[in-house]
Amino acid sequence: MKKQNSKYMKISASVICTALLFACSNDSENPTATNETSANTVNVSTAGSQEMASVISKKVTYSDEDFYEDLEKATAIQLNGNDASFQGDGDVVIDKSNIIIKSSGVYTIEGTLDDGQITVDSEDDGIVRLVLNGVEINSSTSSAIYVKQAKKTVISLEEGTENHLSDGTTYVYEDSEEDEPNAALFSKDDLTINGSGKLVVNGNYNNGITSKDQLKITGGTLQIQSADDGLMGRDLLAVKEGMIRIYASGDGMKSTNDKDASKGIIAIEGGSFDIQSTEDGIQAETSLLIADGDFKISSGGGSPKKITNTETKPPAPGEMEASTTEASSDTPSAKGLKATEGVAIGGGSFTLDSLDDAIHCDNSITISGGDLNVATGDDGIHADTSILINGGNIDITKSNEGIESDAITISDGKIHVKAVDDGINISGGDDKTDTSTEQTEAKEHLLSLNGGYVYVDAAGDGLDSNGSISMTGGTVIVNGPTNNGNGALDYDENFEISGGVLIAAGSSGMAMATSDNSSQHTILMSYPETQSAGTTLHLKDSEGNEIVTFAPAKDYQSVVISSPKLTKDASYTLYSGGTTSGNESDGLFEKGDYQGGTKVVEFTISDTVTWLDESGITTAKNSGPGGMGGPGGMGAPEGRDPHENGNKEEMFPNLDEETSAKVKIIMDQQREGTITEEEAQKQLDDLGVEIPPRRDPNIQDEQKK
Fold this sequence. Notes:
By secondary structure, the chain is mainly β. It folds into 4 domains: about 1-45 and about 295-430, no CATH class; about 100-290; about 490-620, Immunoglobulin-like (Sandwich), CATH 2.60.40; about 660-705, no CATH class. The chain contains 10 helices and 56 strands. It has an 18-stranded parallel barrel. It is elongated. The relative contact order is 0.06.
């Protein structure tokens, strides 16, 4: 047991780095920082939006000129259709409809430019401020506003004004090798947008607004329509406040610097965002940090009306490989929130409707606050390395898999997950299968449930770990699968529980309980027949005290219950049906008067895990990791050869991970009756996999003698 705990601590340490919002790498000069924090993983990231804002303040610096202020002295530029004029001390060159600003200073601009351009080409180190006071600038051959050179440019949107920028569908460059500018508002240097007016941008050629350095927004209303990306800041895209609406044929908001780990950041502290994008909604090359804001994001046309579980009806093996290759090379990414190194959410309100993952990171995700409503055609929340949820309200209403990563820690928050496949999945994290033995052995997969409230409704496995599960606190409710090819709980190594309340109802074919090395007691009840959805189960002790009253949302034939109220040598009675006056939430009733149920079984707990059927206490029929025959497993159903129980580790011990996954799909289909044994054998033959000969139990008995 000590060895297991040390492994859990090792994995928790990596998740703590995530909780500290990537601070582990930044605290190398203070080696005690991580050690001091690791003593209490539950309280590592309780900050929410305020502490997230503090994290952002260390990465993003705003100066006084980034915020709107009234200035009396300015050069006034008047646009007059096909030409312009100016008054003031600014260095302005006017060539018909091309206006060039050659020095720093404040310039107010108003009027209409039918086909022309404002160019900033400052030769000094000062700041250029353009105050848009009701302008319409159109260009048929280039950007409407082009910042070619300036230390920094600030565009202020005057209160009460509406300003329009529009570029051409094709650009004319002096040199055919050039590809800049490429946006209706384009800056090669730092760019800030502030004020309280409105800016309407039509990016007909490529992007709407682009900065090749830093892009900061501290106010104003932006309405952007773009042929590709809406808002782009190469090194940084930071939003302090503002109302932003984007219709993008590419990504909605984007940072692109992949050469410097300290850049390529998107940092949002507030504002309102309504984004409709063909590709990713918000995509950061390195880190995406959100402290607050109101987000409504639809990417890739939103989630499909019906999600097809790819494991339900697999294509032929050859077709599967071709499909996977095509998707990885040709299919554009259509995720809601996405980053390469880290996604951290401290607060805000989110409505995410995405064709691909709603929240995705190639490394780690931290959620410590906020209200998230998620619908997706793939994973609700996916990180290749680790996920920490330490607060917030998360409602995943539609997903293929709800939450997926190598390591997931849930310490606080309220989570609802609905999935057509696995609800919460510890699978190896990366979407790309790695068949390397060294890679596979190096990864340690763990689902840690330390607090909060988790509700899962899954057609596949409810809680699925290609490793272990550890539960120390909180409440976890699982409405698992109705088919016998999956289980409400599924793990390969251990499920060690020492606290909290666990209720997991589902089918019985692959049912698993918690591990017998746990310090908290568990029962697993297997019914002789399927119980109808909504049929209440009631567990009480010998004194009549309620342990659990629960009405599963779907048909079920097994239920796992673990609670601190279950104690050794105490007697309990399980009832079925009946009614209760208790307060109900997600099928769980509390503090009610239960009556009218039918007594199913009475028993006394003597072991850590108690297996039950209608006749009383029974025993696990098999032992060993995984599947029905795993620790806590119910064994093969009556009449079925245990050799065919779906335990791929026993049947096919030498397969690589990718082939093993394909075999599992085929065997699941055969068990569910959607393909015949002959069809399954043909697909296995195509994979080059041979089913081992069926073992004769009589021969085995003779060998044992």
